[in-house]
Design goal:
The chain is α+β, with helices and mostly antiparallel strands and 146 residues long. It contains 5 helices and 5 strands, in the order βαββαααββα. A hairpin with a 2-residue loop joins strand 4 and strand 5. Helix 4 packs across helix 5. The chain is elongated and about 55 Å long. The N terminus is likely disordered.
Length: 146
Amino acid sequence: MDIEPASTAIPNEAPYETIEKYMVPLSKMVIFKPDQPIQDVISTIIDKKIAGAPVLDDQDHLVGMISEKDCLRLIVDEAYHNMPAETRKVSDYMTPKVQSLSPKTNIVEAAVEFLNSPIRRFPVVENGRLIGQVSRRHILRAAENI
């Protein structure tokens, strides 16, 4: 029995759809500003039933992300470091270095990014400005069309 080596050819490079079609546009997203009180974020996360949101400057540049986990640090700061919540801002707790995707990223490339990251959603940035967000579920929805 002859065994043939696995193909080293690149898979069919069909023009996969881009994430732009599946992302949530900025106009439908909850966003925060760096100088907002952290308590506003906690209330919004609870009320809107979201896990986090982008943090934008006044020119819609993405400066970070704030998540439920980031907000949990407030509890520790109050309990162990005697830091009153009323004085704390989003910028004190947000994650400042954020990986983002381009709207022209195709769904296969996005799937690879999700597989190689613990992140459940990526901000979509074009020309330095946030234009939307894409999640694992959006990519799964796109996969139904492959």
